[in-house]
Amino acid sequence: MKNFYLLFLWAVVSCTQTNAPQKANKPLVVEYNKTENACDTLSVIVSETDTFDYEADGQYGVGDDDLFSYKDFYVIDKESSDTDFLERINDYNLLTAYTKATFRNQSDTLFIINDYSDYPKVYSDTAMIINEIMICNGNRNSLLTWKKSTKICDAAIYHSNICIGEFSLKKTYKMQTVNFGKNKFAIRYGVKDSIIFVIKSIYPSNELGGYSISEIKLEGEKIER
Q1: Are 159 and 112 contacting, i.e. CB atoms less than 8 angstroms apart?
Q2: 8 A C-beta contact, residue 38 and residue 172
Q3: What gap in Å lies between CA 184 and CA 194, rounded to an integer?
Q4: Low-confidence winner among 79-83, 160-164, 195-199 (lowest mean pLDDT)
Q5: Residue 46 in 3-state DSSP?
Q6: Are 71 and 116 in contact (CB under 8 A)?
Q7: In this predicted model, what pLDDT tens digit does every residue of 11-37 receive, in sequence order?
């Protein structure tokens, strides 16, 4: 009877560990249901200048700011538990990239997590307004690597299960800014929410299906208290 009890306890612990993969308290699974609302077409602006300076890209990249002064966002992939690899998306270093293989140009989904749930409950109002997202398309480790890497073509952004808009990224190594226009939204204290980044298609490439992202950065207005 004792052996049976120990076997049962071991089975329960094993199932718990298998169904809850975590690293640094970052959940690797996010459930969501996209609302079938009409998606606006968002404008994309390509940066006018880009030196492709490897030393500067490695040290400073896209730069840092105080928009996320309390806690920076992070990115998860419901199909991957490699959080170290995913951190390349927002490490402010343009020489690193997140590369993922997909099958036959199928769509893919990334979740940009803003976790303010542990902020003091007295502050439960708006922390910031997000009005655009900056994306560096492809792998910028070198010019040759960028040319070979597979780039995102069509994509969409959702927040609170509502479509913020659809857009098409250019096939350029320069930073691209997607403006949300009237569909900008708030990040609030005391709340953990996710911005859903849907990769709908990629540009034709000699490589197998997939895509590379060197950097994603959210932009907006910090609400001063």
Answers
A1: no
A2: no
A3: 14
A4: 79-83
A5: strand
A6: yes
A7: 333 333 333 333 444 444 455 555 556
